[in-house]
Amino acid sequence: MSVSVREICEAFFNLEEKYNLNYQQIQGCYAWQLIRMHLYYDITRKTQIFNAPQQKSLSLADKVKTFLPFFKNSVLKNPFTGKYTRDILIFDHPRKVIFNGEYCDIYSNFLVDFLKEDYSFEVLESPYLNHHYTQKQDYVRYTDAIQLGSYVHKKFNKVKFSQKELDLILKVQDELEKIFNIKLNIRWMLTTHILNFQYDFKKYVELFKKRKPKMIFVVVAYENHAIVAAAKSLGIEVIELQHGTITDYHLGYSYPKKTRLNGEIPYFPDKILSFGDYWMNEDTSPIVRENIIPIGFSYFQKQSKDFIGLESFDKQVLFISQGVIGKYLSGLAFEFAKNQKDLRIIYKLHPGEYETWRQNYPELVEASKFDNFTVIDNSEIPLYKLLAESGYQVGAFSTAIYEGLMFNCKTFILDVPGVEYLDDLIENEYVFKIENVDDLNNNLLGFKPTYYDKNFFFKNLDKKLLKSVIDNG
User: Fold this and answer.
1) Which of 12, 206, 286, 450 is the most exposed place for a label (fewest CB within 10 A)?
2) For the chain, which residues make up each domain, given as ranges?
3) pLDDT digit string, tens, across residues 185-197
4) pLDDT tens-digit profile of 385-416?
5) In Å, how far are 358, 376, 385, 404 from 324, measured between CA atoms?
6) Where does 305-456 sit in CATH, by number?
7) What angle (nearest 5°) sits at the alpha carbon of residue 454, between those of residues 451 and 457?
8) CA-CA distance, 258 to 281, in Å (whole number)?
9) C-beta separation of 410 from 435 below 8 A
10) Calpha distance 350→461 (Å, rounded)
C-alpha cells in the first residue's frame, strides 16, 4: 500500500474533527497532544514511507557507562538547588554543534548572547544521547534530575484508563489501522507519555514557582509539553524558538481550523520567534499572525558571512541527505553518478548517518569508488561552504534546502515521502521536483528558478525586535 505524508496528516485532521481529539482529556491531561507527533512517526515507519533515523542507538553498555555521570549531574547541576529567582528560563535544544570552537545550541545561542548583558536568566539543558557537550557555565543547569525521576516514576506507576477513555482510544486506533492496514498500540503509547507528563508537569510547576520566571523560551515545544503546560498553568508566557522547517504537514505546528476550537490548542506556545516572514501559514497556525515574530536566524547570519562571496562551481552537484529518506537519495545519487564525467558530485550525509552509512547505503558505497564522487561523513567542512561552492543541490525536505537557496543553488527536490513539506517552493518554481534520475539529467542545466527574496526565509537577527519581545512580553 502506497501512503503519502499528506494522507497521514489528513487522516489525523479528520479524526481530530470527528472526535474533538485536541480537547479530550484522558487521565487529567490532553493526551492526544502528547502522542500526536510520536504516533505520526510510528505510522510513517510502519507504512514504510520513512526509514527510522540512522542515528546510532545506545547499547546497554553505553547506558550503564553513562549512568554515573547522569546521576552526578542530577546532584551537581540540579536545577532545584539554590535560593534565587530568574526572570527568564531557556530550555535549549539537546543536540549541540561546534560554533566558534565550542559546542552550542544554534537555535538559542543568539538569545543567550543577547541576555548576558542586562537580563536575569538561566539555561536548562537536557542531555543528548546521555551526554552534555557544552562547556560548564554558571548560568546553565541540567534537567537530568527530572529525567531520572521521570524514568523511576514510569517504572513504579501504572495508568488505569476508564472505560470511556478506552472506548475512545480503541475507536481512534481501529480507524487508523483500517486506513493504513497496520497494527498500532495507542494504549501503550498513551501510557508512556501520560506517565512522563504527569511527573514532569508536577516538577516543572515546582521549579517555576521556585525560580519565578516572567518568560520561558523553549526549542521544540511539541517535545516539551509538560514545560509549556506547567508554565501556562502559572500564567507564564511561553515562546518557542524556531529550529527547522514549519509546513502545513508538520504535525508539530499544523492545526487546520476544523481541528481546533476558538483558535487555541492546549500545550502550544504563546508566541514563536521565526527565522523570517516565510514560516507558518495563518490557516493552519493555532496562534495569530502577530504572535509569529520574524526575529531572524543568527546562526545562519554568522556562519554564512565567510562563504556568501565564494565563487560557486557550475559543475558541482551537492546531495543533501537525511536518515529518513537516505535510501531513496543514495540510490538516486548512484544512478546519477554512473554516467557523469564532467560533474563533481558531493554527497553530504546527515550527522546521524555518519557511523552507519556503509551498512545502510550499499549503492553509496559503490558510488564512492567513482573518481568524481565524494561522500562527506564528518563535520570538518562547513555545510555552508559546500553550499556556497555548489551550483546545484539535490535533496528532500531538510532545512539545508532552504539554506542552499540562500546561496543561489539551483535546487532539485526528489519526489519521496515528505515532499509535501516543500509544496509551496515547488508551486512557486523556486525549486524543481524530480521523479527519477532522468528528470535530474534532463533539467539540471535548463531549470531557471523564479526570483525569491532571501530575507523572506532567513533574515538577519533583529535585536530591536527581540528586545521589544522580551521587555514587553
Assistant:
1) 450
2) 1-297+458-473, 305-456
3) 999 999 999 999 9
4) 999 999 999 999 998 999 999 999 999 999 99
5) 16, 18, 24, 20
6) 3.40.50.2000
7) 120
8) 15
9) no
10) 26
